[in-house]
């Protein structure tokens, strides 16, 4: 296998891992919001992130 092909495969794997992490993060935010009945300050606290960060992630993920 050529070095170029190995680099391409490595990049694709990195992209897949990044997409998987995004999917997991979105799912976790959804679950925590359900657990807190949509109370965002408590959800942010449980997630260990700031409230502003939670709002930004929710906007980015269309939640």
TrEMBL record:
GO molecular function, one term: sequence-specific DNA binding
Domain DNA binding HTH: 24-61
SUPFAM superfamilies registered for this protein in UniProt: Homeodomain-like
Signal peptide coordinates: none
Protein name: Fis family transcriptional regulator
